[in-house]
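Following the same procedure, backbone shapes were mapped to integers, as reproduced here:
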Amino acid sequence: MAVPSLIRGRCGYLAMRRARNRTGLAESAVDHGGGISRRRFGRHLGPHRAARLSEVLGQPVVVENIGGGGGTAGTARIATGAADGYQFALGTSATHALSQVLRKNPPYDSTADFVPVALIAEQPFVLIARKGMPANLLEFVSYAKANAAKIQYGSAGAGSATHLICALFNAAIGITAAHVPYNGGAPALQDLVAGRIDYFCPVVTIAIPQIENKGVQAVAILTRDRAPILPTLASAAEQGLANFTANTWFAVFLRKGTPASIAQKLNAALLATMETPSVQAQFKKIGAEIVAPERRAPDYLERFLKGEIEKWAIAVKAANVTAE
């Protein structure tokens, strides 16, 4: 089963400070909150690290982290805000696709309440296990099947991306395991290191320090191909689990009704930022791959988002996963 791409954990929004300028664009960006990967990603777009987007726009871009609701709280703030370009959302498949199919009454309609600006990058998920678990996927599957009655997996919370990825992985290998939800990915990882849970499916950035320190057992990168950031770790497809991929994506959205001229200027600024070598190097450090030029247009993001929602609806129903 091919898993639609998504992002783990909580998100926020990128918000620009209100100060009128000649371009008519906002001065800060909104990040969706508590996820480490997302916070780092937002900083690479703003002044905290690369500062390139600020330079291109000619004004500061301030990242504001808004936690809550798996990222929907910050996103909802953009959806109900002014359509003047002073705030834009750094969206993901958690905030703009997964939220639409996991919740009975999502706080916004991600296709109707936003203007798509640009798809930026993608990042893979990884299967990690406590020390002492099998080191390759085939042996892991055999162990999981033999110990299905007692094996446990952790997540960043019920309905989070890490929950859904592990649930879909379980369905793909034919097991039912106990789910242990945490209040975020960090405590889940801590308990994995301590041996209190058996496995976890986070975005790769979260796992790398513990993989390098041998605090956890890396089993497989959940993609068709190996990830450049972990070149020695075999992919799930390489280890025999065909048609199973799990990536998160990052994209920028404006409030519906924002003038087209502002959306066009922001798209151009983002594209210039993405082509900057220092920004590409920073993204590489967090395991994010910038999308190809033909995937960066607003109309592509519009089609892509609709496809993601449709794929997730099918996957969520098949895995019988809810945000409850």
User: Anything to note?
Assistant: The chain has a mean pLDDT of 83.
